[in-house]
Design goal:
Length: 319
């Protein structure tokens, strides 16, 4: 087990280095100068003395060659310093500390709802194969997988917010400030974020359950006269969960990536919206930092998913 974990961490570090290289150099291929974009938003470039522009370029490290900028950025990450934002003119770590908890909270709720509801209705459809629950759930999962998140968000804003006035259409309030308002504000974003996960997990759980209940040991359990509840929950569920757990782990990246659309549609001040504004402003350091955090999260979740296989199936051994 220890050898396996060390090997996986080593491979994860290699992947992380490759990701940092790709993001760093791709951002530099974008046309335009981020400093000139920032200066143009604040005042006229002609009105700012060249000495001041050069001072700003030196402050943000843009006067160095590209390889020096890369190693300076990586060295800063090792020391826990993500650098300073050109667009917001403050530490990236401060921006992440303000926005990351919001995205993490919405992502956690979406992950929980996507996993629980998807697994439950997937089990129901698998056990009731060919009956009305299966005939209703299976077509709905195709709809859930294909429907665009931003389109669904706009429809929900129009119907539940503007027509019925049941839910707020935008914004975010901390649950520690006003729990009821926070809950009402998050209903639509969480539904939009978790819909794909619910549909995908339900489809995978149904397929996995159908495969598992056809095994000999399940037929033996039925032959012993055990109840459907005992056969499904005690004997079939664990083995059926292995592919679903993989899908849930991979869904972490989808939820973080989907936060860009959800937070933009619902005007939520999270990491996704920060990423959008930073890309348009060519704020290199912020985009690189967010990509780095997302990459670390996905790699960590993949490791945890792989380790969970041994718990779900004792036949799995790590070499």
């Amino acid at each position: 087990m220890t050898t396996y974990i060390i090997r996986r961490i080593f491979l994860a570090l290699i992947v992380l280095i490759i990701v940092t290289l790709i993001v760093f150099f791709l951002m530099r291929l974008l046309p335009g100068d981020p400093l000139m974009i920032f200066v143009g938003q604040q005042s006229s470039v002609q009105a700012m003395p060249p000495e001041q522009i050069e001072a700003l370029r030196h402050e943000f490290g843009l006067d160095k060659n590209i390889m020096s900028q890369y190693f300076s950025w990586v060295g800063g990450i090792v020391r826990g310093n993500f650098g300073s934002s050109i667009y917001y003119h403050e530490k990236v770590s401060k921006l992440l500390a303000q926005r990351l908890p919001i995205t993490a909270y919405i992502g956690f709720l979406s992950l929980v709802f996507g996993a629980l509801i998807g697994i439950i209705i997937g089990i129901w459809a698998g056990v009731k194969r060919g009956k009305w629950p299966d005939k209703v759930i299976t077509p709905l999962t195709y709809v859930g997988i294909t429907i665009p998140v931003f389109w669904l968000g706009i429809l929900m804003i129009y119907f539940f917010g503007l027509m019925l006035h049941w839910l707020p259409t935008n914004g975010y309030t901390s649950p520690f400030t006003d729990f009821w308002l926070s809950t009402r504000q998050l209903v639509m974003p969480v539904i939009c974020s978790s819909l794909f996960a619910i549909a995908a997990n339900a489809r995978q759980m149904r397929s996995s359950m159908l495969e598992t209940i056809g095994q000999d040991y399940i037929r033996t359990a039925w032959a012993k006269g055990l109840s459907e509840r005992v056969v499904v929950l005690k004997h079939a569920l664990k083995n059926s969960l292995i592919p679903v757990i993989t899908l849930v782990g991979m869904g972490i990246g989808g939820i973080l990536g989907g936060s860009v659309l959800v937070e933009t549609v619902f005007s939520i001040p999270g990491v996704g919206r920060l990423m959008v504004s930073s890309i348009f402003g060519q704020d290199y350091v912020v985009v690189q930092a967010i990509t780095f955090v997302i990459s670390v999260t996905i790699l960590l979740m993949n490791l945890l998913v792989d380790l969970s296989y041994g718990f779900l199936d004792p036949r799995i051994r790590y070499g």
